[in-house]
Amino acid sequence: MLGCNGLLSGSGSVIPDLQAELFRAVQANDLAAARRVNDRIYPLARVFYADPWAAMHNRMKEALVLLGRLPRAVVRPPLTKLKRDEIERIRAALVESGLLGAKASRDAA
To answer: What sign has the CA pseudo-torsion 56, 57, 58, 61?
Structure first.
């Protein structure tokens, strides 16, 4: 709401459409629409930027795998493959945000 000319966001690789929609709603001064979009973005921000913060890009890669946009989530050391329970939290956030169906079962690789 404070205004900007652009955004550099790691999660933009996962949710560019939501970020653009939020920006348009704010530009149009449609606070109700902006809140609705923010409510969709928040579950993902919460899971991507959880501790340890350094794993955020690893989590975003797993989200891209779950969405079918990447074949597998490859990371370089010192990062390591996420555990199954964390991948499940990412999947749940994608479902909560409306980006992934509740019955989606694609495994992150």
So the answer is: positive
With a CB cutoff of 8 Å and minimum separation 6, the contacts of 75 are 57, 58, 61, 81
Full-model pTM: 0.86
Q: For residue 49, what are the contacts with CB-CB under 8 A and spacing of at least 6? A: 56
Residue-wise pLDDT tens digits, 30-46: 999 999 999 999 999 99
Cα 17 to chain centroid distance, Å, stands at 11
pLDDT digits (tens, 9 = 90+) for 47-74: 999 999 889 999 999 999 999 999 999 9
Half-sphere exposure of 17 (CA within 13 A, CB side): 4
